[in-house]
Amino acid sequence: MAKDKFEKIDEEVPPRTQNQQPGVEAEMDPAPIYDDENYKGSGKLKGKNALITGGDSGIGRAVAVAFAKEGANVAIAYLDEAEDIDADKTVKLIEKYGGKAKKVRIDISEEEHCEQLIDEVVAEFGSLNILVNNAGKQFPQNDIAAISSDQLRETFDTNFFGLFYLTKAALQCMTDGDSIVNTSSVTAYNGSPGLLDYSATKGAITSFTRSLALNLAEKGIRVNAVAPGPIWTPLIPATFDAKKVEQHGADTPVKRRGQPAENAPAYVFLASMDSSYMTGQTIHIDGGDFVGS
């Protein structure tokens, strides 16, 4: 069977690492696939306004591109990075496909920042219909004794508390037919011996997704999640050493890591009315890494 483009890009795995999270996509080689040329939009999100955290790169960028192809206006929130190189490129991609774009450099770990972010997006677009909680950090430690209280707080502040604060603020202006999509992880289901605090945040996100879905069902606001496996994003070279970067994804059933563009259609599905009878659910995009209930 002929290899597809997602497999071909992974034939030569670079042992290149970065020294700061969440990483810079512009420095990755080979570059991740964030725009699948075979993905054609059909107006599924026409007239919708979306906010994506961690939207400047990785899965967030791929989702922003797919949303724009589907007719949405897209705001991206991102943590401080050198010269905004990733964010500026994502803005250009959104505009290339006809969407109105907005970028906001902000730290969502503070509740007042989340309130400010929602205010800015609504002021720019007039409303908010789709919230994608995607921002995250991870700091591997092989021994729980090595996880300091500062690391634990930083991981939860960004991955879970920021998501909670932003959702709380966003719901003040969301209504019937709107959608929230959270980024969980395969580590919430399989666990991870070297990512104890990170996997715990993703477990919290999964439980929060289920509970909030029940809480908001009568209001007609759906809440779902995507649980990616090993995906080639800036977080990988910014987290692991050269050996782990080289082996990233090789232990999945499909024997390779995934690309951001392979996740984007799931976010479109959950954000659109194609998934109108789904809430509290998680879609697993992980190369078969998790098979279970």
From TrEMBL:
Enzyme class of the recorded protein, top EC level: oxidoreductase
Keywords for the protein's UniProt record, in alphabetical order: Oxidoreductase
Region (Disordered): 1-39
Name under which the protein is recorded: General stress protein 39
EC number: 1.-.-.-
GO terms (BP aspect): bile acid metabolic process
Pfam families hit by this protein: adh_short_C2 (PF13561)
GO function term, MF aspect, one: oxidoreductase activity, acting on CH-OH group of donors
Top-level taxon of origin: Bacteria
Keyword field contains Oxidoreductase: yes
InterPro entries according to UniProt: NAD(P)-bd_dom_sf (IPR036291), Sc_DH/Rdtase_CS (IPR020904), SDR_fam (IPR002347)
Protein's UniProt keywords contain Oxidoreductase: yes
Record family assignment: Belongs to the short-chain dehydrogenases/reductases (SDR) family.
Basic and acidic residues bias spans: 1-14
PANTHER family referenced in this protein's UniProt entry, alphabetically: NADPH-DEPENDENT ALDEHYDE REDUCTASE 1, CHLOROPLASTIC, NADPH-DEPENDENT ALDEHYDE REDUCTASE-LIKE PROTEIN, CHLOROPLASTIC-RELATED
